[in-house]
Write a structure and sequence with these properties.
Blueprint (H helix, E strand, L loop, with lengths): L1 E4 L1 H9 L6 H8 L4 E5 H12 L19 E3 L3 H8 L8 H13 L2 E4 L11 E3 L1
Parallel strand pairs: 1-2, 1-4, 2-3, 4-5
Length: 125
């Protein structure tokens, strides 16, 4: 499987894997799966750190690739797909993840029920 972690799932996978539901944790930890992290999630983390809404462990960003995560950049096709999404969800970062999951045929690992309103495959986190 090819998975895309939403921001909460990423934070839990790296720092508190027990917070993930067992099926999601197994999928993320399986060497048979490719797990992507969107630059949108990293940008969201950076913004929340800068305004004091999130604290990350030292070396958080540097730990992503050694943990086996693949980085997913935001491409023009993602932006175009984003512009066509219905407004089921108001969070722009989550909407980017939905657009990326749709374009790249990824399964989104999330606990956000609003994301399930989109035509995207989900593994409940």
């Amino acid at each position: 499987m090819r998975l895309l972690l939403d921001t909460h799932s990423l934070l839990w996978a790296l720092n508190q894997p027990g917070m993930l539901r067992s099926d999601a944790r197994k999928a993320v930890e399986s060497e048979d799966n490719v797990v992507y992290v969107s630059m949108a999630s990293l940008w969201e983390c950076a913004i929340k750190v800068s305004i004091g809404k999130l604290r990350l462990p030292d070396g958080f960003f540097q730990a992503l690739q050694p943990a086996g995560f693949e980085m997913l950049t935001i491409e023009l096709q993602h932006v175009e797909a984003y512009s066509k999404l219905p407004m089921h969800h108001r969070d722009p970062f989550d909407r980017v993840l939905v657009a990326q999951a749709m374009c790249e045929q990824l399964i989104l690992v999330t606990r956000d029920e609003e994301i399930c309103k989109y035509d995207v495959s989900v593994i409940p986190a």
